[in-house]
Design goal:
With 358 residues, the protein is of the alpha/beta class. It has 2 domains: 205 residues, D-Maltodextrin-Binding Protein, domain 2; 93 residues, Periplasmic binding protein-like II (D-Maltodextrin-Binding Protein, domain 2), CATH 3.40.190.10. Helices cover 41% and strands 17% of the residues. The strands form 2 sheets. Strands 1-3-2-4-11-5-12 form a 7-stranded mixed sheet, with helices on both faces. A 5-stranded mixed sheet has the order 8-7-9-6-10, sandwiched between helices. The chain is globular, with a radius of gyration of 19 Å.
Length: 358
């Protein structure tokens, strides 16, 4: 069956505008463009490579991972001073896929759910071929089902409104949670809502399945965690935040992609070895204090380049997880058909993670 859609009451619109202004977020497609640079003009990866003249349009999301560190510290700009790099913020992976289709971005962040949809049959001819080249994070409690205090179990959700961004990893985890607890999407009212709009809509909802910083904002409004992506992962349905890029861009810009992966590996190492510095680096982008960002890190697992390049991740198992995800999405009517195992394997590329690990 097709995923149901419910529209929230228009009365929340004014409050939504206030929330968006406070968060600096987007309700849909790219809403801002910037070139980033920190106070220190030196490249933390070694000598800058002035031979790289790539023009790269990067789609990012406000998720507490290394991509925000790379952006905020201007690492790409410092290490490739003759490249032209723009950063555009998006609200969800579904919006990033649309931007790929419109030819607006070259490299971006999506959850594993949108990445799988892009690779599934029949292929969307409006999208350029993409490959997944980096795992920004393995999602755990960083994506959670937050509910009103009176909701004590999955059974209490029956007949209630639950919001999540459709086609996101949170949506996928929510559907798996319902299924694992004997419920289907018809037992609840699913509301397709971007994270930035959830705080204003919270009084009308029984729950939201979302990521930080919205997750923490909803908890501050009295929401209580009921389940998380860590629970659904333990049941065999893992989710990830991934970097993907169009294959033409990858093929034409190998040196840029290698430097990009090295920058991402630097950011991962900073999170894992010095979370205080990492949290300080991205707190302004997330509009929350560094101490709160540091707590958010605990909801994710951040993999080094060497780990990512291994058979456990980009080197093999991720493609298997893609196939399993596609099989579930087919049962939900979210895709028309499952592609071949070879197609999902071709959509994963560990070359640049391996280069960054050297």
């Amino acid at each position: 069956m097709k995923l149901s859609k419910t529209i929230l009451a228009a009365s929340a619109a004014a409050a939504v505008a206030v929330v968006l202004a406070a968060c600096g977020g987007s309700g849909g497609s790219a809403s801002s463009e910037s070139s980033s640079g920190g106070a220190d003009a030196s490249c933390p990866l070694g000598a800058p490579d002035e031979s790289i003249t790539t023009t790269a349009r990067i789609a990012y999301q406000k998720i507490p991972n290394g991509d925000l560190i790379v952006k905020e510290q201007g690492i790409l700009e410092k290490c490739m001073p003759n490249a032209t790099i723009t950063w555009n913020v998006f609200a969800s992976g579904g919006d990033v896929l649309q931007a790929y289709g419109a030819g607006e971005v070259d490299l971006g962040l999506t959850g594993s759910n949108p990445a799988v949809k892009a690779l599934s049959a029949p292929l969307d001819t409006t999208l350029p071929p993409t490959q997944n080249i980096w795992i920004f994070d393995v999602i755990g409690a960083g994506e959670s089902l937050i509910v009103k205090p009176e909701i004590k179990s999955a059974a209490d959700l029956k007949g209630k409104q639950i919001a999540t961004p459709f086609s996101s990893t949170a949506h996928y985890s929510l559907l798996n949670y319902l299924e694992q607890n004997g419920l289907s999407e018809t037992d609840v009212t699913l509301v397709n809502l971007e994270p930035e709009k959830m705080v204003a809509a919270w009084p009308d909802l029984a729950g939201v399945f979302v990521w930080d910083p919205t997750l923490s904002e909803i908890v501050a409004q009295g929401g209580v965690p009921l389940a998380s992506a860590a629970d659904t992962a333990a049941a065999g349905k893992p989710t990830y935040d991934l970097a993907n890029a169009t294959k033409p861009f990858i093929d034409a810009n190998g040196p840029f992609m290698t430097m990009w992966a090295k920058a991402q590996n630097y950011a991962v190492n900073l999170i894992n070895s010095n979370p205080d510095a990492a949290a300080t680096s991205i707190s302004a982008e997330l509009a929350v204090p560094p101490a709160d960002v540091k707590k958010m890190f605990a909801g994710y697992k951040y993999l080094s380049a060497a780990e990512q390049a291994s058979p456990e991740w980009l080197g093999g198992k991720l493609a298997e997880d893609f196939l399993a995800t596609a099989e579930f999405l087919l049962t939900q009517g979210a895709i028309d058909a499952v592609n071949t195992p070879e197609a999902y394997a071709a959509g994963v590329n560990n070359t640049f993670a391996a280069e960054a690990a050297k």
